[in-house]
Design goal:
The protein is mainly α. The chain has 18 helices and no strands.
């Protein structure tokens, strides 16, 4: 492990700083949108803008990587993200913020692709699992720490926007000043969406559902918490609880899913998350402590859905198809992530802040019902060698190659 970290410290250090900025800016944008008087629909549009950019970047950025290389594209994207966050403090209207968030989404999507490509290039069959574990730990830890940075200044001021810009610019230094060689760029094959559905209907619907749920949880969570009247400190605690407890629950849930029918675990956690949404609404009127405890339990059930859906899909794939299938999975996740903030904001505009959990209840409940339906149509595979692997939520198809169970895609 020491050798692995010694060879990749610059990549992980830069990625940690980017994750710190990413965690802060997501919560900051949500809180500031309420401070500026944006409607729920307008705030949802702003959040959706990020995911529009994220999906677009995953398609566009590989083209630029082939033309000018990883280092130049990385520097350009980090600079663009640094500029974009400052524009939020100049143009204080939701339509401008929607466009700015698209640029942020493109930038961060490209940065994640580049980081994961670099890690793939540095990895071997013996170290891929270790690198993936470090990558996931850094993602959750630094995103959580970034949300706590919300408390060092007033979100109504420009200070925190400047801090995000500084962090994104600083993240350039370890990468550009190290002697890390840029990796070779190869084409990533993918299944069509119809082929993907034929392979795993539950994986298809699961990818959409995870996008619908998690984009609301992470992208709109700060908007909800602020609308409920939580203080800045309580908003940051709310978001840290979601991030940290969702990460901690991945291993025990993953262990169970490898020991029994994975669909039962997926159905069980999504129905549990759906039921907890009702309890969270009730607890918000009783006790803040109880509200946070139930939110932690919800996170424990909801966040592993991403890795569960991927693991279930992998049950029906050959090892050399996993990376290709993850590209189709990522597209569906992106579509769901774009629609999620728009749907939840529409429900909240009708029912008030509690519509946030009404929306999540519906998404989780419908996925659970579809899972029960699929269990009547398909038996569990008896020859599957797939395993549950905890994955960071922002991992791209390039990062899936770090999964130890994958095999390189053969060139035609």
């Amino acid at each position: 492990m020491f050798t692995v970290l010694r060879n990749t410290w610059a990549l992980f250090f830069g990625f940690g700083i980017i994750s710190l900025a990413h965690g802060l800016q997501g919560t900051l944008i949500g809180v500031r949108s309420i401070i500026e008087g944006f409607s729920f629909i307008s705030a949802g549009l702003v959040v959706a803008g990020y995911y529009v950019g994220y999906l677009s970047g995953s398609i566009i950025i590989p083209v630029f990587l082939k033309r000018v290389g990883h280092i130049r594209v990385f520097a350009a994207l980090a600079s663009l993200a640094s500029i974009a966050i400052l524009l939020h403090s100049i143009f204080l209207d939701p339509y401008s913020w929607f466009l700015i968030r698209i640029f942020t989404g493109i930038s961060l999507s490209g940065i994640f692709i580049i980081m994961e490509s670099w890690l793939n290039d540095k990895s071997t069959n013996q170290t891929r699992g270790q690198l993936l574990s470090v990558y996931m730990i850094i993602t959750f830890v630094f995103v959580g720490l970034g949300q706590l940075l919300l408390n060092i200044s007033d979100p109504a001021k420009v200070d925190l926007f400047i801090l995000v810009s500084i962090l994104l610019s600083f993240a350039l230094l370890p990468i550009l000043l190290s002697n890390t060689e840029q990796p070779n760029t190869s084409d990533t094959k993918s299944f069509s969406l119809s082929e993907f559905y034929a392979i795993s209907p539950l994986g298809f619907v699961g990818a959409l559902s995870v996008g619908l749920a998690h984009s609301a949880v992470f992208g709109y969570g700060a908007v909800y918490a602020t609308a409920k009247g939580l203080s800045i400190l309580e908003v940051s605690i709310f978001m840290v609880i979601i991030t940290s407890f969702g990460a901690l629950s991945q291993w025990p849930i993953g262990y169970l899913s490898d020991k029994m029918d994975r669909r039962l675990i997926l159905i069980g956690v999504t129905f549990a998350a759906s039921g907890l949404c009702i309890l969270i609404v009730v607890s918000s009127y009783i006790s803040l402590t109880l509200f946070f405890i139930l939110t932690a339990l919800y996170s424990c059930m909801s966040l592993p859905m991403y890795s569960l859906a991927i693991a279930h899909t992998n049950d029906f794939l050959e090892q050399n198809e996993i990376v290709a299938a993850s590209s189709a999975f990522a597209k569906l996740l992106g579509v769901g992530s774009i629609l999620g903030p728009l749907f939840v904001s529409g429900i909240m505009s009708i029912t008030g802040p509690n519509g946030y959990h009404v929306y999540l209840l519906l998404v989780h409940g419908l996925l659970g019902l579809f899972g029960l339906y699929r269990m009547t149509k398909r038996a569990i595979p008896t020859d599957s060698e797939s395993q549950y692997v905890p994955l960071p939520r922002n991992i791209t198809p390039a990062g899936m190659e770090l999964n130890p169970i994958t095999e390189p895609i053969e060139e035609e």
